[in-house]
Amino acid sequence: MNKMTLLLATVLCISGFTAKSQDSTAAKKSPFSMNVDFMSRYIWRGVNLGGNTPSIQPTLKYNFGSKKHAFSIGAWGAYSTGGNQFQECDLTFGYTFNEIISIGVTDYFFPADNGASIRYGNYKDLETGHVFEGTFAFNGTKKIPFTLMFAMNFYGMDARKINADGTDGGIFMSKYVELGYKKVYDDMTVNVFIGGTLDDPKQDRGEIGFYGNESNGIINVGLKLAKEIKITDKFSLPIQAQLIANPERERIFMVLGISL
What we know:
The model is unreliable at 1-24 (pLDDT under 50). The chain has one helix spanning 3-27, and strands at 32-39, 43-44, 47-48, 55-65, 69-80, 87-97, 101-109, 112-113, 116-117, 130-138, 146-156, 160-162, 168-171, 175-184, 189-197, 217-230, 236-246, 251-259. A hairpin with a 3-residue loop joins strand 6 (87-97) and strand 7. The strands form four sheets. The chain has a twelve-stranded antiparallel barrel with strand order 1-4-5-6-7-10-11-14-15-16-17-18. A two-stranded antiparallel ribbon has the order 2-3. The protein is mainly beta. It has one helix and 18 strands. The termini are far apart.
């Protein structure tokens, strides 16, 4: 074998190894994920936060750990498409054990309140635009197709108590609990849910709950249907429709959404 043949064989071997390495790298699944939901209205736990305009809701997430011990760090936002409505940008941290039990912490942040600018770095009591919430959830199993979630605010722009003498009594540490049922069919996923707040504001003192509630009780009852509409052989469009009622405030909403 002459030098030219040897050099050519070496180049081909290196090229083949490089290509194989690149293919292997390209095939590796990224720990990052992203998507965006386009919702006709932003309804959260039975409360209309988006006014009368559609809401664009992007998500960024970094996932790590294993199937048994899964961790995630993410960001989620909601931006109404018209008017001076609630805008929102949240940071989240979550841990899930065996896909069954989940705990998490969310830093909710509302950049504007009645048109007034709120600085992101301000965490002072009575001034901050942040609300910190902790959650605990049972995600259900094949044999137990029910979900249960408990959430509680522990700092920030939560509803506040008012003492008998009119002075500030601190935050409610507002609590919310939700029971759900999920059924997956070949062509559709069905979710039924009912949620309520455990806090009972004293109206005679001027208190109002975090969810706009005047008493404890059911604030979020609904049915969600989700499916994928096939557009091409390689692309399907996820859509969802929800019927949501808030018995405590006597409100009802119909929401349509698509995801990309």
